[in-house]
Design a protein that fits this description.
The structure is a single chain. The chain is 43% helix and 20% strand. The chain has 9 helices and 14 strands. The protein has a 5-stranded parallel beta sheet with strand order 2-1-3-6-7, with helices on both faces. It has a 4-stranded antiparallel beta sheet with strand order 8-9-10-11, with no helix packed on it.
């Protein structure tokens, strides 16, 4: 079985079946979604290597789905168009601007689909697959797990993962409660302060040797929180982003 995992999103069962058939010889691990909500959830939480989706999924344009997925995931995204022409060109531009890697217009053959998929997977392999190593534990960003001493493994919930990912992106820089709420809950943040505190406490229990005396996830009084990471780790993250 190929190690690459592909998510196919279309509200049309025939389209999902055709994509599966087109990639059958490649032996990928393929799963499917039929709704926008399920597509966003699986693309962000299940860590597929590639998302192949229609230009419209159950009435929602691909560029809107890309805009929801891209801040939370580096999954490769291939959008399949329905036709050529001016409208398709505009749709392609919108999708690419929102974070899609490729746009493939109809008609296309099996060989072209397979080639586009392989090309995106090569790019994804170069930009993804990071493990962040701290003094006594490691954060696996692909599997959403924290590996601690003595082989202990803690799995992150979706909200814990998003909060931690946001803090990693802004490592060693204070982030306010509102910053976190806006990034994770997509709201203005005014009513989410207590929820942020709850998630931070949950993260400390999984990340810190002593949650009562945090070493990594620090409180910035009157501001919010800061993730302390070694300078060399941050430099490596910047080089890989």
């Amino acid at each position: 079985m190929n190690a690459n995992r592909i998510l196919v999103a279309s509200s049309a069962a025939a389209r999902r079946r055709d994509v599966r058939a087109g990639l059958d010889s490649e032996h990928y691990e393929i799963s499917e979604t039929a709704t926008p909500t399920e597509t966003i959830t699986k693309a962000c939480f299940d860590s597929p290597d590639l998302l192949i989706m229609d230009s419209v999924v159950d009435g929602i344009d691909a560029h809107r789905l890309c805009a929801a997925i891209r801040p939370q995931s580096k999954v490769g995204i291939l959008v399949l168009g329905d036709s050529l022409g001016c409208a398709a060109g505009s749709t392609a531009i919108d999708a690419l601007n929102a974070g899609a890697d490729e746009y493939l217009s109809m008609p296309f053959g099996t060989a072209e689909l397979a080639a586009r998929v392989r090309a995106i997977l090569r790019r994804v392999a170069r930009r993804d697959g990071k493990e962040i190593v701290l003094q006594d534990r490691a954060i696996d960003m692909n599997s959403h797990r924290i590996k601690g001493p003595d082989g202990q493994v803690s799995r992150l919930t979706p909200k814990e993962y998003f909060v931690l990912r946001y803090l990693i992106t802004h490592a060693n820089k204070p982030r306010t409660h509102r910053d976190l709420a806006q990034a994770v809950w997509q709201r203005d943040g005014s009513g989410e302060v207590e929820y942020v505190r709850i998630v931070i406490n949950q993260l400390r229990r999984k990340l810190e040797p002593d949650p009562a005396k945090p070493r990594y996830l620090l409180t910035e009084r009157a501001v919010g929180y800061r993730l302390r990471m070694p300078v060399e780790t941050c430099a490596g993250e910047a080089a890989n982003s």
